[in-house]
Amino acid sequence: MKTSDVWMVILVAFAILLITLPSASVAGDKNKTVEPVKEIESTDKNSETEFTTISAYYFHGRKRCMSCKTIEMYSHDALLKFFPKRVETGQIEWKVANYLDPKNKKFKKEFGLFTQSVVFFVMNGEEIVRWKNLKDVWEHKKDKEKFYDYVKVEMDTFIAEGK
Question: How far apart are the first and last CA of the chain?
């Protein structure tokens, strides 16, 4: 087997592992029935020609456990599901950052970060104008439907407060 083939097999195995592990870690009770996520009406309107970018960041530390990876994935998925036009047009930007990195010191201090967090914020130049730390993501990490609902409601509220 050529070296390139070995690397391809390793890469595919790693991808499969990344895809299957998050679902295994949040599966919970083996006897529990998994219900599909219910559809919630999206409030994603894209009628404004000028807009303020809302930054949605998942801040992580140096070590990233399965719960942390699940929170990151669910947060991003919820934004894509309920606010696809805003994400596509840049009205909502999703980023992942290490809050312990010295270049993110400003965020760590401003948001009072001491653990992994999802934060929505708006900046005017280099100044953070307003922000919201979604502290309850940890409470909903084992229930995808409630997690999605929580992120949607928080983003809807954050958008409404900015008008």
Answer: 60
Q: Which token pair is 22?
A: 């998050």
Domain ranges of the chain: 51-163
Question: In terms of DSSP H, where are the helices of the chain?
Answer: 3-25, 66-82, 84-89, 105-111, 137-140, 144-161
Superfamily for domain range 51-163: Glutaredoxin (3.40.30.10)
Give the pairing type, strands 54-60 and 92-98. parallel
Q: Cα dihedral angle (32, 37, 40, 45), rounded to 10 degrees?
A: 150
Query: What is the value of pTM for the model shown?
Result: 0.68
What is the distance between the alpha carbons of residues 115 and 101, in angstroms, rounded to a whole number?
13
Per the structure block, which two tokens stand in for 43? 């409030």
Structural tokens at position 54: 């809302």
Q: What is the pLDDT along the chain (163 residues), one digit of tens a residue?
A: 665 555 555 555 545 544 544 444 444 444 433 344 343 444 555 433 346 899 999 999 998 899 999 999 999 999 999 999 999 999 999 999 999 999 999 999 999 999 999 999 999 998 999 999 999 999 999 999 999 999 999 999 999 998 8
Tokens 């995808």, residue located: 144
